[in-house]
Amino acid sequence: PSVPRHTNRLINEKSPYLLQHAHNPVDWYPWGQEAFDKAKTEGKLIFLSVGYSTCHWCHVMEEESFKSKEIGEIMNEHFVCIKVDREERPDVDKVYMTFVQATSGGGGWPMSVWLTPDLKPFAGGTYFPPEDGVHRVGFRTVLLRIAEQWRENKDALLESSQRILEALRHTSEIRVQGQESPPPAKEVMDTCFQQLSRSYDEDYGGFSKSPKFPTPVNLNFLFTYWALHRTTPEGAQALQMALHTLKMMAHGGIHDHIGQGFHRYSTDQHWHVPHFEKMLYDQGQLAAMYSRAFQISGDEFFADVVRDILLYVSRDLSDQAGGFYSAEDADSYPTTTSREKREGAFCVWAAKELRALLPDLVEGATQGTTLGDVFMYHYGVEEAGNVDPMKDPHQELKGKNVLIARCPPELTAARFGLEPGRLSALLQECQQRLSSARAQRPRPHLDTKMLAAWNGLMISGFSQAGAILAEQEYVSRAAQAAAFLRTHLFDPDSGRLLRSCYRGKHNSVEQSAVPIQGFLEDYVFVIQALFDLYEASLEQGWLEWALHLQHMQDKLFWDPKGFAYFSTEASDPSLLLRLKDDQDGAEPTPNSIAVTNLLRAACYSGHMDWVEKAGKILAAFSERLQKIPVTLPEMVRATAVFHHTLKQVVICGDPQGEDTKEMLHCVHSVFSPNKVLMVADGNSAGFLYRQLPFLASLERKDGKATAYICSNFTCSLPVTSVQELRGMLSP
């Protein structure tokens, strides 16, 4: 590589996204006091650019504008320019995204915002093309106009920014109104189900026409709705909606049929042409959803998808120290000699290429059939490419095919006169061959940043899959990642979580000079992960750490006046707003998960004030839950769990005994959204016995492993039969 002509301060950062911009001619600063002081001292506006390393349009804007010497000169002359990785600093991102959405009606990344020297926003948008077009003002023009406004109308701009901030403070506030109590579960559940049903696509699954996102929060809600209404037509419909969506996604191009795992979202209604980046948070949540689908349906198809996701994460997103990386990019070089990256280049195929790789004749099939014929028929490959030009505005996928399982295996087998079992083996052989061919292509960029929150989601995915599929290696991988968090993303002196760490030189794990403290989302996803890991591994140390983190979360983020948790701590003066997220999106909003975490924490500790706190969160969000519950499906689910009271399923027995294992297998095989599991192993000095004195009164019956179903620490009669236990676990 040639010696870079420019180097700016971002060269000293750890974030892969910031390092991508370290050689721009723009004099970038990271978010921090040095940049703020420069803006104040020189009386300059701040240009804030927020993105992430696997964001396609962030790459486009960098290529077009931030690498331009001329545009760089305009930026450096008139502005103090700050770059933020939204995954590192979701707090900064959220404050200014709230502004952009409120003032432009939309949002996204890259996010471009202009701030006064005291950090108040007054203009913003997302991607800007470099020059003026027919329908859009170019970035250069916007920069020059804003610089002129600041010169000519500084006072008006300052006044306007103050008014905007006050309005944002007012509209973004979420607090309990008067004497509000948690909303009733039945009405909120029914309304959410009706609202989801209206947007459901009966043909292809999912909840919009296009673009189409996986939205695990919707699927999780539907599973719970089914569990609580399983004898009603609505309950059956909810289950069908969730399972059909998961099946269609797994057949679609959003699922990587050669390299495993799932891409970010589909650009079309059919789950066919994806936006090709792969995010850790999707893999973690989808592993949990497909595990639940298997748990409920018993269909091995779903178990195979779980194994597929976890294979991808173990192979491609795992650090050797045990943590999980954040993402893989959508863009890559088509060949080793290409000068320009293309979206999806690593994943798509020309028909000619497939024929060359799969030329073998298939024995026993209709005469002249090759492996290529079978594979191409099954995965919808067309000679001229199978991507609709309308879904490929930049012609990056012209003549290429995105693999999509177009027909059931039985039909493909019949078409070529094959046995279904034989077809499966042939397709597997093709996949292995194509995987080897794909390994020769230049790989997409890997974001090796490791985030506490997303690692938490992935630990939950491995833990739940391990428990439900009875795969001990998945539980061990979850435990390895949790140990990684405790070593690298937890400060034992302060008892607090850290947000991020990074893969360094020679595969070391590095921390930034001033570590970023954990946000609310880091706490809730890690606490949830530790509860899931305890239930899968029965290691009480994970429980103990979870309860410690719950106390710390209460101390740092709880709003004693308006109830619920703030997303950020109170101690950062550079954050103009302390917000509470009010929408479950690609990830659940932290307060939604916090409700269930608090209820689980109360069951494991006996601290009933945590149940009260859970009710206060629901009260703070009551109005939204009653009017538009579809924006908070995970919190609606938590409302049902709150009103139904969690069942404490206590197994008295030796964790290594076969009778205990049989009972545990039974508990893990039944989907029950309102249960917590614990094993009373007779060790009265253990953590659980110290927390829950009532466990000492529970005994094994006739020397066998014995189950008790307890509610608020009052227990049912003992049960030693697995069949009886199964019946008692249903909600």
UniProtKB/TrEMBL annotation:
Gene3D superfamilies found in the cross-reference section: 1.50.10.10, Glutaredoxin (3.40.30.10)
Domain Spermatogenesis-associated protein 20-like TRX: 7-168
Cited InterPro entries: 6-hairpin_glycosidase_sf, 6hp_glycosidase-like_sf, Ssp411, Ssp411-like_TRX, Thioredoxin-like_sf
Pfam family, one: Thioredox_DsbH
Any one GO biological process: carbohydrate metabolic process
Name assigned to this protein: SPT20 protein
Species per Swiss-Prot/TrEMBL record: Motacilla alba
Higher taxonomy: Eukaryota, Metazoa, Chordata, Craniata, Vertebrata
Gene that encodes the chain: Spata20
